[in-house]
Design brief:
By secondary structure, the protein is α/β, with parallel strands linked by helices. It has a single domain, classed as Ribonuclease Z/Hydroxyacylglutathione hydrolase-like (Metallo-beta-lactamase, Chain A), CATH 3.60.15. It contains 6 helices and 13 strands. It has helices at 48-57, 75-78, 81-88, 99-104, 184-195, 213-226; strands at residues 6-9, 12-16, 28-33, 36-40, 65-69, 91-95, 126-128, 132-134, 143-146, 155-161, 164-169, 201-204, 208-211. Strand 12 (201-204) and strand 13 form a beta hairpin. The longest helix has 14 residues, at 213-226. The protein binds zinc ion (2 copies). The site of one zinc ion (ZN) has 4 residues, from loops. Residues 72, 74, 150, 171 line the site of one zinc ion.
């Protein structure tokens, strides 16, 4: 994976990640939906200035970020939410099943304890309910799917950029831990739903970007086989 911020498709960018911002950051993605910028995950929280600079470097204005969607309740994805929000004033969305852990700053379920850090409580402005729906920003074309397994509050996001379906599947790979509420049986069901999306591009949380329907399928099938 690259070591600088990059444009993935016409309206999709990667602005942070282990080689780009901080070794403990997940990959952090940005979608330009109808001129509304939507951030997908925020990293562990040590890279606020770098992330803002990276967005500008791509020719985008960080002040146009309307929403941050947190894909699940782990600190390497959500730790950066509060520091970024204090600079940019966007709203924060997460699934209803992730809300308690994030808004309370639960250090066990957020894995903050595993990283030896604490998580500050982060209020959720917009709750994503139920099994599926649309993120209520822009033209409503960014969809979510509740995909419990790695954690109870995991979601994937997807939208069609021209004729290509882009899938944001942060931590599809797991891992699984009782302290986080992981459930492998639920995860297998979730992965089948994700496969049915037939995405052309997968933006993953720690493995980077997979291009092409068959590469995306292969990656997910590989995970399913590993945990058989
Ligand atoms: Zn995770
Ligand atoms: Zn992660």
């Amino acid at each position: 994976m690259e070591s600088t911020p990059l444009r993935i498709t016409r309206n999709t960018y990667c602005i942070g990640g282990p080689n780009i911002t901080d070794p403990d950051d997940c990959f952090i993605y940005l979608v330009n939906l109808d001129s509304h910028l939507i951030l997908i995950d925020a990293g562990i929280g040590r890279s606020t200035d770098r992330l803002l600079a990276n967005i500008s470097q791509l020719g985008l204005n960080p002040r146009n970020i309307a929403l941050l969607v947190l894909t699940h309740e782990h600190v390497d994805h959500i730790g950066g939410a509060a520091p970024l929000q204090s600079r940019l004033k966007f709203k924060i969305a997460a699934h209803e099943k992730a809300k308690r852990v994030i808004s309370k700053g639960d250090s066990n379920a957020s894995a903050a304890k595993n990283y030896g850090i604490s998580l500050s409580p982060t209020p959720i402005d917009i709750t994503l309910d139920g099994d599926a729906g649309s993120v209520p920003i822009g033209d409503g074309s960014l969809h979510y799917l509740h995909t419990p397994g790695h954690t109870p509050g995991s979601v994937v996001l997807y939208f069609n950029d021209g004729d290509r379906r882009v899938l944001f599947g942060q931590d599809l790979h797991g891992p699984f831990n009782k302290a986080w509420g992981s459930n492998i049986r639920q995860w297998r069901t979730s992965m089948k739903l994700v496969l049915a999306l037939e995405a052309d591009i997968l933006c993953e949380g720690h493995y980077g970007v997979y291009r092409g329907k068959s590469a995306v399928r292969q990656f997910i099938f590989g995970l399913l086989n590993q945990t058989a």
